Amino acid sequence: MPTPRSVPARIPVSAEEQAQIVYSEAAQDFERRLGNFLVHHPPVVQFVHDLIGRLWNLVQDEAPHLLTRFGTRDPHRAGAVGNDLAVLRSTMESGNLREQMAMLWNGHDNALFDVLFDRVSVYPAEIESERRDRRAVADVDAIRQLPVREPDIVPPLSPRERDFSGIPDSDAVVWRPAPTAMDYPLASGLHLAGTRTGALISTGTSGSTYFLLGTAEDLSLRTGTPVRMGLMRLALLGNLLATRTHTFHEVMSSARLWDTERDGRYGLRYADNWGRYRFLAPIDEETLRRDVARDGLFPDEIAFAQGHPWGIRDHVQPEGTVRDGLRSRPARESGERPGLDTEASVSAGPGAPTGVVSAPPVRGAPEDGRMAALREALRPDLLHAVRPWEGSFDEEVARLRNILQRGGSRSIVFGNWEEAPVWVVKVDETNSLGWFDRYFRPLPDGPSFAHGPVASIDIGHSGALVGPSLSALLSLDREATEGTKLAYCDMGPGYDFTNLFTRSVPW
User: Fold this and answer.
1) Nearest to 158, CA basis, from 100, 200, 208
2) Rounded CA separation 219/47 (Å)
3) SS (H, E, C) 300-341
4) Could you give the CA distance from residue 155 to residue 42 in angstroms, rounded to a whole number?
5) DSSP codes, 381-412
């Protein structure tokens, strides 16, 4: 049974503080065991196998030239097998859960699902604001060289993974667990909130959970067949715990956020308090106690046995309550039973097939007169690439941070054709944007046309279109999406903006 870390006698530590230390250590142990359990849990493994097969078949039918986007050239990603089509097909057919979940993430990261489902993936405001506190780990280059060894990998490493990421003459792979590259300061809001409820914090609320739940929902919408979101959450949780990417709290709170945006129709509830590990539908508490909990005890019970000052009934609460000091109070009223997983077909909108959620209407962008003039002045081959900004300037800048996902991504931002465009560049991997004029001189206050109609051409780090522009191009010409890098890769610092127009410009 875990015991508290030794504390110097000169620092007074209360019984409650000691219990919190014990709880944290027991929670880390529980989460490791839970990840190992879930990646072998037959219903979860079968669910992931079926899901990746359905997505593969859909891409094969609608855009077979994009199948390699299920892969990656980055050997540092857990579960990566490369981007050879034959290897990817083998992984789809018989890969382990980690390999197949990596294919899902690659599909998102390579904009495959944005293209397939005609969408743009944008972080919600809650995650976007949280990411501002994220920082790179000091001496990251040295830390990243620490190998992940085969005896520590669950499920066991496959030959495909070993061939792509293995270190020659070694039992290690070159994977880079996310916590070795980024973290949150202890003074951040994320950590401070976690201390109130016992939540473990690592790399922040899981963006991959948020986006891939949406992919599962989009698949249901497209194919007319329901997806069991409770199992999807378990698959994400198991993989992200086993690969040390996120904590239980970071996955569960992300799933709850995603579901809340849909009025809770999928029942992805989360008990953000000291009893969190008891509630994980569709797995019941007794199964978790028997198959996961060490010696049949949850972390709160281990802390209680070590002199925990709280009564178990006082701090173990169903979803909708939080532990605040020595009191437990409802976070909001809820008439639903805790831990109940809604696995039935989701409610359908008018005219939708049974088991399918109707997609929300797409808001059209009004065509301002100045925007119409801009379109007339641009080269015809660029018209499909221009994205009008529909919201307020600040809202669209926040959206742009999500569209430009990697360092080196950039946008050419227009006020109208009579004003020189400016650059917005994703400076690094910390979600920072830099504004620059046409000579690539910094614009610390942003462009002068910030309060008028604005549009942009959004270009990824590889030189291809990204975001809504890429989706629009697909609707015009599916084959052309593969050539967008050739069309836009030269549009970088030093580019002559006059080449964008068919008219002489006044600047």
Assistant:
1) 100
2) 14
3) HHHHHHCCCCCCHHHHCCCCCEEEECCEEEECCCCCCCCCCC
4) 13
5) GGGGG-EE--S-HHHHHHHHHHHS-STT-EEE
Residue 442 in 3-state DSSP? strand
Stretches where the chain sits below pLDDT 50 are 1-9, 139-145, 308-314, 320-367, 477-485
Amino acid identity of residue 468, one-letter, is P
Inter-residue contact 379 to 491 (CB < 8 Å):
no
**Residue 60, H or E segment:** helix 42-62
**C-beta separation of 386 from 457 below 8 A:** yes
Give the pair of three-digit tokens for residue 302. Answer: 């281990």
DSSP letter at 280 equals: B
CB atoms within 10 A of CB 305: 14
Q: Look up residue 330 and give its amino acid.
A: P
Q: Tell me: the pLDDT tens digits for 457-474?
A: 988 877 778 877 776 565
pLDDT at position 209, please? Answer: 97
Specify the 3-state DSSP secondary structure of 501: strand
Burial of 277 (0-12, 13-18, 19+ CB in 10 A): buried
Structure token digits, residue 304: 């209680």
Tell me the whole-structure pTM to 2 decimals. 0.64
Can you give the pLDDT at residue 319? Answer: 56
Residue 494 in tokens = 């030093």
Given the structure tokens 């979860």, which residue do they identify?
44
Tokens 């610390």, residue located: 444
CB 113 within 8 A of CB 106: no
Question: What are the residues whose beta carbons fall under 8 Å from the beta carbon of 285, sequence distance 6 or more?
Answer: 278, 279, 339
The whole-number pLDDT of residue 4 equals 46
Q: Angle at Cα 109 formed by Cα 264 and Cα 379, nearest 5°?
A: 110
For residues 140 and 147, give the distance between their C-alpha atoms in angstroms, rounded to a whole number.
Answer: 13
DSSP string, 115-168: HHTT------HHHHHHHTT-EEPTTHHHHHTSPEEGGG-SSPPPHHHHHHHBPT
DSSP 262: T
Can you tell me the distance from the alpha carbon of 185 to that of 56, in angstroms, rounded to the nearest whole number? 40
Closest listed residue to residue 183, CA positions, set 126, 136, 124, 229: 136
Contact 409, 426 (CB under 8 A): yes
